Amino acid sequence: MKAPFRYICIAASMAFAISGCASQSNSSIGKVGSSELNKYGQIYTQMIQNELIWSDRLEGKICTLNIHLSEHGNVTEISSIGYEKLCENSEKAVKSVGVFPMPANEELAKKLMEIKLTIAL
Predict the structure, then answer these.
(1) Which of 40, 82, 112, 117 is the most exposed place for a label (fewest CB within 10 A)?
(2) Domains of the chain with bracketed CATH
């Protein structure tokens, strides 16, 4: 069964946050860059959500992932902390996505190369 997230929060280089998370500002990114980061955060959220398999046993559980992407959007490293089974499933979902789209703007792409993702079901 696909996971209906209660909330999911992605923060790339601590520069942005979406979906129920406190916004964080970074003046070096600017308003346009911030909205672009949020756009990519929403895309990544949807891609991971589409791959995440969950069961009722995972309801109420939380996992935080640290995801490292290459400049081309390939997953190079994943680490997690939280409820073990949810973290396992979340890591598998990220690996299933494989390649995440990256913006053409190199500065924005660098901000997306380190992602902190919190999943709560």
Answers:
(1) 82
(2) 7-120 (3.30.1150.10)
